[in-house]
């Protein structure tokens, strides 16, 4: 949990006891061996966050100074115990609620999201994804509990981490520094989008292949600010690669279906007089793109590039080679 959240909880606990405390007294009583002293500005920011969360704060002048307290009439503070696994579940729920955007219950969903934000603050999953996954072939490999916990809180409290990652080919492991950005539930497997400072690009890591995560306090580089559109535009699904302009023809029978969906941020759709569509995507020619196109072979034709036609033909031909 981030230091800011922990301080806010401590401040609420202090001020809800009926005591009236100055900023200096709050700093003194929230400081211990695990929580080093903070500045007056940081405490003032904490007080603003507490007010935004709907907890009434009263500021009372005492001579030249000010004292803060929570009115005794406020009764919304109830003991709440949430385990770390429950926090992850709350983040999953927050991600799933995005599926109700632009529906008639959107307003109520927004209210619920704000309440969940108080229990599990921060954005962990990509906004546009569907967290619920019923895809066949779900990965059975479990993600280590400690690794999952470290990833989750590294996203909500951004910092550099030193990751040991097991290659998909054999058991070779590599260790490198990243900043975790978002979690992704894709095709039955959990992935993590991360910024690689050495290569200055986004990478996608399968969570179950992460062997260990350690906070890299020795790295002083400025943290990267996550750009979701930039991350998505460089890959199809979770896989990246060399970017190409892909042009597909969609038969009239499937035109409405394809036109009603967001396949990629770069997509452009042009309707033809015969009812068909021309779908243009700027995407990598990844294995996932090829599999997606082949799965729609009954209604999709490849117009360009020629290399994509060859790759898809080879994939289908292998089905009959043995």
Short summary of the structure?
The chain has 10 helices and 13 strands. The chain is of the alpha+beta class and 322 residues long.
Care to describe what's here?
- The structure is a single chain.
- This protein has helices at 3-15, 23-29, 40-52, 84-97, 106-119, 145-156, 228-233, 252-259, 287-295, 306-317; strands at 58-62, 65-69, 161-166, 173-186, 189-196, 201-206, 210-215, 235-236, 239-240, 243-250, 268-271, 277-284, 300-304.
- The longest helix is centred in the N-terminal third of the chain and has 14 residues, at 84-97.
- Helix 1 packs across helix 3 and helix 9 (287-295) packs across helix 10.
- The protein has ten helices and 13 strands.
- The protein is α+β, with helices and mostly antiparallel strands.
- It is elongated, with a radius of gyration of 25 Å.
- The termini are far apart.
- Strands 6-5-4-3-7 form a five-stranded antiparallel sheet, covered by helices on one side. It has a four-stranded antiparallel sheet with strand order 11-12-10-13. The chain has a two-stranded antiparallel sheet with strand order 1-2.
- It folds into three domains: 3-69, Winged helix-like DNA-binding domain superfamily/Winged helix DNA-binding domain (Arc Repressor Mutant, subunit A); 80-233, no CATH class; 239-320, Alpha-Beta Plaits (2-Layer Sandwich).
């Amino acid at each position: 949990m981030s230091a800011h959240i922990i301080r806010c909880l401590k401040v609420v606990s202090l001020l809800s006891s009926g005591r009236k405390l100055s900023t200096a007294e709050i700093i003194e009583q929230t400081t211990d061996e695990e929580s080093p002293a903070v500045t007056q500005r940081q405490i003032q920011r904490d007080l603003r966050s507490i007010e935004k969360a709907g907890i009434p704060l009263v500021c009372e002048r005492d001579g030249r100074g000010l004292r803060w307290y929570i009115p005794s009439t406020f009764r919304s503070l109830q003991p709440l115990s949430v385990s770390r696994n429950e926090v992850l579940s709350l983040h999953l729920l927050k991600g799933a609620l995005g599926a109700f955007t632009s529906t008639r219950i959107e307003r109520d969903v927004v209210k619920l999201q704000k309440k969940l934000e108080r229990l599990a603050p921060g954005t962990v999953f990509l906004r546009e994804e569907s967290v619920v996954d019923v895809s066949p072939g779900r990965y059975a490999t479990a993600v280590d509990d400690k690794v999952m916990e470290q990833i989750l809180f590294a996203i909500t409290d951004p910092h550099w981490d030193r990751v040991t990652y097991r290659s998909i080919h054999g058991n070779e492991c590599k260790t490198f520094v990243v900043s975790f950005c978002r979690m992704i539930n894709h095709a039955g497997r959990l992935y993590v989008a991360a910024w690689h400072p050495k290569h200055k690009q986004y990478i996608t890591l399968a969570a179950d292949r992460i062997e260990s995560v350690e906070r890299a306090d020795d790295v002083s580089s400025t943290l990267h600010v996550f750009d979701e559109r930039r991350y998505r535009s460089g890959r199809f699904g979770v896989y990246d690669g060399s970017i190409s302009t892909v042009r597909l023809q969609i038969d009239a029978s499937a035109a409405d279906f394809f036109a009603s969906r967001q396949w990629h941020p770069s997509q452009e759709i042009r309707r033809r007089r015969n009812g068909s569509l021309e779908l243009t995507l700027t995407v990598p020619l990844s294995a996932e793109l090829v599999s997606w196109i082949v799965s729609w072979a009954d209604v999709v034709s490849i117009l360009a590039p020629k290399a994509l036609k060859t790759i898809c033909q080879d994939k289908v031909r292998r089905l009959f080679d043995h």
